[in-house]
Each structure stands twice: as structure tokens, then as C-alpha cells.
Amino acid sequence: MQLQTEAGAGAGAGVGSTDQVAGRRARGRPKTVSDDARRAGIIAAARATFHEFGYGGTTMDQVAARCRISKQTLYRLFASKADLFMAIIGEHRASMLALPRDPQENLPLDEVLEQIFMIDIDEAAERDREAFIHLALREAQQFPEIAALLRTCGAEQSRQMLADWLSLQQRQGLIDIADAESGARMLMNMIFGAMITLPGRVSDWPDRETRLRHLRQCIAIFLKGVRPR
Fold this sequence. Notes:
Elements: H1 2-28, H2 35-57, H3 60-67, H4 71-77, H5 81-96, H6 109-117, H7 123-140, H8 144-171, H9 180-195, H10 208-225
């Protein structure tokens, strides 16, 4: 009986040891990273690399090294440097216009437009936003493919998204606008013209509060012009 008990105890100890070893092995396995998370990390690293070296001076090898991934993984997620820059433009577009919106949103239109254009973002976010604009405009002068990406993936898509939102307000009877795309162009020119300081120029605004009042006045003037009669 004693031998059986000792044998059973020994077997139990063996199983426990095996489980502990398996547990240690399981804990030691590298965590899998989803493609979405990996893309986000690559975009962040690529953005920093483009800022540091410019579009022409950046290589996919540099981006892969900065992300500590293989070139094979990088090319699986982004087929080319232009595709990578296009992804950054898409991310930047989301920092310029908070669109699309919830169709069931029930806020005054002036408040919604303030949120869409993010006219009161914090200074750090605004610096990041403006830094990329300056980078993109500078690189577009040297590389036609960047100019094309900025037009098609940046300005045109942003304008279409805003036009779609204006069209929805028209269908709901909240505004009266003959041409939503023209209205989107007008509104973007008013707001971004005041928000963005182009490279080589000095801001016209003495402080952020003065600019914020101006932006709110621009929104008020636009809404007054499209108010249903």
C-alpha cells in the first residue's frame, strides 16, 4: 500500500512537473500581432522616417528596420513606398475631418461642423497635423506621385465625404444647398484657409482664441447662407 501511495505521489508529481514545463513554454511563446496592429505600427514608424529623411530619402529597408520586422512582412502589408505614404495620407485625412458621422446624430449643425473640422484640437495634435501638411506639400513639388496621392486620396476624398454629409442634411431638410460638392469646397476653403499656415509663412493669428472665434464665424456665415427659406 505504501509503495502504491508513493508511486501515485510520484506520478502526480511527474504530471505536475510536466504541466509546469508546458506552462512555462506557453508563456514563453511570442505573442501574435494582428495585421491591423502591425499596420498601425508601420504607419507610425514610416511617418517618423518620412519626416526625418523626406520621401526621396526614405527606403522600405529603413522602415522595416525601424519596425524590427522583415522586408517580406512589410511588403506583404504595403506593396510599395507610395502605398505606405498613401496610408499615412488616409490617417492624416482622419485628423483633418471627423467624417463620416453617425446618421442619427442630433446636434445643432454649428456644433457638428466644429467637431467635423476639429477647430479646437490641442496644440500638440495641431503641430503634428501641420507638420505632415508641410512635409506633403514640400515632397509634392519634387515627386509627381505624391502630388497625385494628395489630390486623389486627400483633398478629393475629403471634399466628397463632406459633400455626402451636406447632402444628408439637405435630404433631412436642415439646409438648402443647390450643389453639395461646391458647398463642401467653399466650406473647406474657409476653414482650412484660416487653420493652416503654409510652409514659409507666419501665422496671421495673434493667438488661438482669436482664430477660434474667426472659425466659428465662418461656420455661422456658411450656415446662414444655406438656411432653408
